[in-house]
Design brief:
Its EC number is 2.3.1.225. By secondary structure, this protein is mainly α. 52% of the residues lie in helices and 11% in strands.
Length: 342
């Protein structure tokens, strides 16, 4: 009790708040109002803040994703069909064996890229398992530790599960939502997404190489080719740079005589190199997160805090389903960052 200025006494009363845990259904007595609290029995986290459910733009986002999927599919078909039309008459004119080899390579890469794209775009990204909640006798101690409740799906959500408002579902181990595949990347299709990136990078690099190889045979021969070659082979650095400049200018001058087939090859080369660079960066980022035992969303949520995951090649082996016995053959790669920390 506290004495006031008039000599009377004022009593201070600590008001207690009652709340119900959604996980086990127990009535909890809180010392003060807490919008977010964790149950001491089941471990579930309750958020009492009102959640505004957004459903107006769901159809618009799904339509946007479908458009991106169609654009990406048309681009892949254009690269495959355009490359076959533009490059393979040149390759078969060199030799029959060369044409057959590159035809088989193209068919293999095209089937690999299209099949992995189909799997990652149309396979379920991973639904969380249904778990019992709401009744105290059935929900054990710590059974819902760090679980939250998804107001969109009206069911429990594990710490590594996130709700995607574009797909309208909770996704287990969600990495991100990719509009170009029109689907989320999660536990159910993450391997297929990595396989698609690897196949697409290899295919675009191969397509760029074939475009350059075909353009060399399509463009008119350079004048003074022997002089250019002597500058490159026997000259100093300045002579080599001058020779490369002269060769580039000579090919640009010959470009006015290029045919429609050559223009298609030039476009395919530029497009393939651009896509290969972008996908290579994305593939490196994905493999880095897998190496650290994270997803993209968990990486964003852990910024500014100490990392719980262990950086190890074991994470990559587990992700791809390889036996852990392979890890002993990679001691240098595994210990690189550990040595750096010390």
């Amino acid at each position: 009790m506290e004495e006031s200025s008039q000599g009377s006494f004022v009593a201070t009363i600590n008001e207690e708040y009652e709340a119900i845990c959604w996980g086990c259904g127990l009535n909890l007595v809180l010392p003060s109002y807490a919008p977010i609290f964790k149950c001491g029995w089941c471990g579930a986290i309750t958020n009492q803040n009102p959640v505004k459910l957004e459903t107006k733009r769901f159809g618009l986002r799904r339509f946007r994703d479908r458009c991106f999927v169609v654009i990406l599919a048309v681009f892949m078909l254009f690269v495959i069909c355009g490359g076959i039309w533009a490059a393979y008459p040149v390759l078969f004119s060199i030799s029959l064996a060369c044409g057959i080899f590159h035809s088989l390579t193209t068919v293999s890469l095209a089937l690999s890229t299209l099949s992995t794209f189909t799997l990652v775009a149309f396979k379920c990204p991973g639904r969380p398992t249904n778990i019992l909640y709401g009744t105290h006798p059935e929900v054990g101690n710590g059974a819902l530790n760090n679980y939250t409740f998804c107001h969109y799906c009206s069911k429990p959500k594990s710490p590594r599960t996130h709700h995607c408002r574009t797909c309208g579902m909770c996704v287990l181990d969600m990495d991100h939502h990719c509009p170009f595949i029109g689907n989320c990347v999660g536990a159910g299709n993450h391997k297929h997404f990595i396989a698609f990136l690897i196949s697409a990078v290899i295919s675009t690099i191969y397509a760029a190489g074939m475009c350059v190889y075909s353009l060399i045979h399509i463009l008119p021969p350079l004048e003074n080719r022997a002089a250019y070659a002597s500058d490159v082979v026997g000259g100093d650095t300045l002579s080599i740079l001058r020779a490369v400049k002269n060769i580039t200018l000579a090919y640009i001058a010959n470009a006015i005589f290029i045919s429609v087939r050559g223009l298609v090859l030039v476009y395919l080369f530029v497009a393939s190199v651009s896509v290969a660079i972008g996908l290579s960066v994305l593939l490196w980022q994905q493999l880095s997160y897998i190496y650290e035992g994270k997803t993209y969303l968990s990486h964003l949520s852990s910024q500014g805090r100490e990392e719980d995951g262990e950086k190890s090649c074991r994470n990559l082996l587990t992700f791809f389903g390889c036996p852990h016995s392979i890890e002993r053959h990679l001691p240098t790669i595994r210990n690189l960052r550990k040595k750096h920390k010390t």
